[in-house]
Fold this sequence. Notes:
Elements: H1 7-22, H2 32-39, H3 43-59, H4 61-70, H5 73-91, H6 97-125, H7 131-160, H8 162-178, H9 200-205, H10 213-217, H11 220-249, H12 255-283, H13 285-303, H14 309-338, H15 343-350, H16 352-372, H17 376-401
Helix pairs in contact: 1-6, 1-7, 1-8, 3-6, 3-16, 4-5, 4-6, 4-15, 5-6, 5-8, 6-7, 6-15, 7-8, 7-12, 7-14, 11-12, 11-14, 11-16, 11-17, 12-13, 12-14, 13-14, 13-17, 14-15, 16-17
Amino acid sequence: MTITKYTRWRVxxxxxxxxLFTSATAFFSLFSLPLCNQFGWSSSDFSMAYTIYMFIxxxxxxxxxxxxxxxxxxxxxxxxxxxxxxGWILTGFANTIPFLYVAYGVIAGAGAxxxxxxxxxxxxxxxxxKSGSISGLVQAGAACGPFIMSPIAQLLIDNLGAxxxxxxxxxxxxxxxxxxxxxxxxxxxxWQxxxWQxSPTQSQELPTKxxxxxxxxxxxxxxVLLFMFIFANAAGTMMVSATSPIAQNQIGLSSMDAALCVxxxxxxxxxxxxxxxxxxxxxxxxxxxxxxLVINGISMLMLTAAHSYAYFILCIALVGxxxxxxxxxxxxxxxxxFGTKYYNRNYGLIFIGYGIGAFVGPKISASFYxxxxxxxxxxxxxxxxxxxxxxxxFLAKKLSTKMN
Length: 404
């Protein structure tokens, strides 16, 4: 492969575009009320489909990372794409909860899980000079996608029905990701941009020991990071999975206004991803992560008093902004702590914490709503998890110093 000054930007463009399409789970809450009303499902049963999706998505991540490293990133992407788009199309035929769980939760989730670790870590390897900002910009595509697609998905639901909307979206995803996967090529080990002079801080990060998976899981910091990821992710995934029904049930908005709320949250999620990419490059990982968690915890407590449209928008803006920064900060931190050689698979494995958090968050909100008719206790529970994650940051920071 001939490497030019444009190669890494071509990789960046391909990864950005695929993230725009594969971020469809962020507007899956739009399908909650229409499908529950059509088939008589409970919100708790429906939300479990999202939970299964996220868990499978994260659980298979290290497999996608291994394929990306041993073969080519595009191989993992094409395999994942067949599953991802096929799962969405099959969801359009789901008329029972088990069918929904298999089609959307297992098949689409496995497809997305194969794609993600083949893309973001590959892009970051090409940008050792600006890991934070590129992480933020790449993942901004995952926030930009729902902002663009949420109103389109709602129009499809309103005019053609939820099931037909799923089938059409699956075809769109198949075409959109399929035409850019060829652009994503692996970065040669040890490659650096021509003329780049690492800063003192970057020089300290570059020679980090390369841990493989068996070595990584034996370190205490791996387990601290995993649990931190679980707790930090719970509040954000709760809102992602339930923004539309919360807007309709707690605030009393129409389905289209609720769809606008989903778009607004994903817009601020995009701002958070971009902003925290540059914040990471300035503050570095631990301080950036603390800022993410503080904003997250405060916003969840604010939601307990959200009853007006304007105040609700403020709350979801803060939730989206902080949740957007979470993945941006975590991704380059894993590379710095455990090295670049096995980065795809290592990040894929630690990403399981994201999936477990996706189980905790939606389950909290749906269960409390089914039991009490309100989301208040779910908000409080998620805020408590954010506080626990903050405490784990200090522990992980102390453990990381002992590795250097």
